[in-house]
Design brief:
Helices cover about 40% and strands about 20% of the residues. A hairpin with a 5-residue loop joins strand 1 and strand 2. Pfam families: XdhC_C (PF13478).
């Protein structure tokens, strides 16, 4: 591999940005395609699929054979709120391959006893997210039901273009939340990305059932990235 291409690829990986290494198997030349770069035709469609799935494979396009080596950051789930839903969600998400971090300044809730083997931050989201910023390969679920804790994290998630943003609460609660986020400078198009009420509509009632609904919606959001604008996702 060309040293410059390797350096570029490593820089993208360190910054948690997705990239696909495209190698022309006919002449051996390779190049880096970053997520969001425009590539037309059959090759562009194959690269878009690689970004969605993370699968590396060879493809035939424009009469040539290419190998697409996909390098995607590992998606992670940041949960705002050390509540019962979070206790069920953390082990489920870990099994599904999503590392979980719990953020909650309420030290009575954010304890290692309640969240064993989980990255736990008994701090305000403002402090944690300044130190560990969100990105487009992060999902954020706000479940404290407390605007003082949830709102900052939600605005940060929208600004970082997190692939999933969900918030606990009824439609009436969310309507008040929308007013607060607008006052914080969030745009209407940003706010429309929030899944509220949180989770797929499966009739969930218990904390564990809500956790299943949230994880399923998170996975769906990750695997359908880039399809919404094409009308492929309802």
């Amino acid at each position: 591999m060309d040293p410059y291409v390797l350096k570029t690829l490593n820089e993208e990986r360190r910054a948690r940005r997705a990239a696909v290494l495209v190698t022309d198997l006919g002449d051996g030349r390779d190049r880096i395609v970053r997520e969001g770069d425009r590539v037309a035709g059959e090759l562009g469609a194959a690269i878009a699929s690689a970004f969605r799935t993370g699968n590396s494979r060879s493809v035939e396009a424009e009469g040539r054979t290419f190998f697409l080596n996909a390098h995607l950051p590992r998606p992670r789930l940041v949960v705002i709120g050390a509540v019962h839903i979070s206790q069920a969600l953390a082990p489920m998400a870990r099994i599904a391959g999503y590392p979980v971090e719990i953020v909650d300044p309420r030290t009575a809730f954010a304890t290692p006893e309640r969240f064993p083997d989980v990255a736990l931050h008994a701090e305000w989201p403002e402090d944690v997210l300044k130190r560990e910023p969100l990105d487009s390969y992060t999902a954020l679920a706000a479940v404290t039901h407390d605007p003082k804790i949830d709102d900052f994290a939600l605005k940060a998630a929208l600004d970082a273009r997190c692939f999933y943003v969900g918030a606990l609460g009824s439609r009436k609660t969310h309507a008040k939340r929308v007013e607060r986020l607008l006052a914080m400078g969030a745009g209407a198009d940003q706010i429309a990305r929030i899944h509220a009420p949180i989770g797929l509509d499966i009739g969930a009632a218990s904390p564990a059932e809500i956790a299943v609904a949230v994880l399923a919606q998170t996975i769906h959001a990750f695997r359908s990235r880039g399809l919404e604008s094409k009308g492929a996702v309802a």
